[in-house]
Write a structure and sequence with these properties.
By secondary structure, the chain is an alpha/beta fold. The protein contains twelve helices and ten strands. The chain has three domains: about 10-135, 3-Layer(aba) Sandwich (Rossmann fold); about 145-225, Beta-Lactamase (2-Layer Sandwich), CATH 3.30.450; about 230-304, Winged helix-like DNA-binding domain superfamily/Winged helix DNA-binding domain (Arc Repressor Mutant, subunit A, Orthogonal Bundle), CATH 1.10.10.10. It has a five-stranded parallel beta sheet with strand order 2-1-3-4-5, with helices on both faces. It has a five-stranded antiparallel beta sheet with strand order 7-6-10-9-8.
Length: about 300
C-alpha cells in the first residue's frame, strides 16, 4: 500500500481509550505527522503490516491482545521488526517497564499524557530510525547484502539482497541459523575469528563482520562464494552416487537425517545408509568432518 504522503512521517497510535486517541491524533496531526489509529492489538498488527508506520505509540494494557504481546508479535515479523515502539502506560512499576523493553519497546511514556514530552520522544526515536533507513537505502543502492543483528542474535533489518540470499535459512521468527549465531558470539569475544561459511539450499555463502552500526548493532556482510559445491560437484569430487551426493549436500547444510529423508522422499533409515556409504568413501567417521570436507571443496573451474 502506498504511503498517503511520502514526505510526512507516519505514526500509528494504538489505544482503546477514545479520549487518548483524540488527544494524540490532534497533537500529532498539528505537528505534521500522518496519523493512523487502532483500538486493539489485532487492529494494530493488521495496520502495521499493511502500511508499516515510522513509529508506533502503543498502550500497554488493552483488552484481548495487550500491548506487550502486540509488540512481541511485531518484533517476530521481519517487515515490522524495525519499527520503533513507544509504550504508553499508567504503570510505572519496574516490572512493567522491564516487560515493555523485553517485548521490544524502545521507550515508554506515562499517562496522563504530557504533550511536550511525547513530541520530544517521538522526534528523537524517529531521528534514530531515519538514520537506519538511510543506511539501508545506501547499501541497497550499492548492491550490498547486509544484515543488522542485535545483541541476542536477532535480525533487526536486512537489505533485499541479504534477504534473498538467506531465504530458507532464517527460521519462522526471522532468526539466523544457530551455527551462525554461535560464530557471531565467538567473533564478539575474539575479533580475529575468520569469516563464517554457510551452505544454503542454492549456494555457499561467506559471512563476515566488518564493523558495528551507529546504534550498536552488528553489521554482517553476506557474500556468495564462487564455485559453491552443489550435489553435482560433490558427486564428481568424491565419486559419490547421485543420492549420496544429495545426502552429503544436505548434511553440509545442517539438516538431520529425518529432514534429509523428507526432502529427498526416502525413509530415515535409507538416508542413514547413504550417509554410511558417504563416510566410507570420504574416509571419515562423523557428520561434522563430512560437512567440513563438503564446505571446503573447491571445484576445478575455481582453481584455473
Amino acid at each position: 500500500m502506498l504511503r498517503p504522503d511520502p514526505l510526512r512521517d507516519v505514526v500509528l497510535i494504538v489505544d482503546d481509550a477514545p479520549e487518548n486517541l483524540s488527544i494524540l491524533h490532534s497533537l500529532l496531526d498539528k505537528s505534521g505527522y500522518t496519523v493512523l489509529v487502532a483500538t486493539d492489538g489485532a487492529g494494530a498488527l493488521d495496520r502495521a503490516r499493511r502500511l508499516p508506520p515510522d513509529l508506533i505509540l502503543l498502550d500497554a494494557l488493552m483488552p484481548g491482545i495487550d500491548g506487550f504481546e502486540t509488540c512481541r508479535r511485531l518484533k517476530e515479523d521481519l517487515e515490522t521488526r524495525p519499527i520503533p515502539v513507544i509504550f504508553m502506560t499508567g504503570l510505572t512499576e519496574t516490572e512493567h517497564v522491564l516487560q515493555g523493553f523485553q517485548a521490544g519497546g524502545v521507550d515508554y511514556i506515562t499517562k496522563p499524557i504530557r504533550p511536550a514530552e511525547v513530541m520530544v520522544r517521538i522526534a528523537s526515536h524517529l531521528r534514530n530510525s531515519r538514520q537506519v533507513v538511510q543506511t539501508r537505502a545506501a547499501m541497497d543502492a550499492a548492491g550490498q547484502a547486509v544484515v543488522a543483528v542485535g545483541p541476542s542474535g536477532e535480525v533487526l533489518w536486512l537489505t533485499p539482497l541479504a534477504q534473498a540470499r538467506l531465504r530458507g535459512s532464517l527460521d519462522a521468527q526471522g532468526r539466523l541459523p544457530a551455527a551462525l549465531c554461535s560464530w557471531l558470539q565467538e567473533a564478539l569475544r575474539a575479533p580475529e575469528v575468520g569469516p563464517f561459511e554457510l551452505l544454503t539450499a542454492t549456494e555457499q555463502l561467506i559471512v563476515s563482520r566488518p564493523r558495528r552500526g551507529a546504534h550498536g548493532e552488528e553489521l554482517l556482510v553476506i557474500q556468495s562464494k564462487p564455485g559453491s559445491p552443489g550435489p553435482a560437484a560433490l558427486m564428481q569430487a568424491f565419486r559419490l552416487t547421485p543420492r549420496e551426493a544429495d545426502v552429503l549436500y544436505w548434511v553440509a547444510v545442517g539438516k538431520t537425517n529425518r529432514d534429509i529423508a523428507d526432502i529427498l522422499g526416502m525413509s530415515p533409515r535409507t538416508a542413514n545408509k547413504h550417509l554410511e556409504h558417504v563416510f566410507a568413501k570420504l574416509g571419515v567417521e562423523t557428520r561434522t568432518t563430512a560437512a567440513r570436507m563438503a564446505l571446503n571443496l573447491v571445484t576445478p573451474q575455481t582453481t584455473q
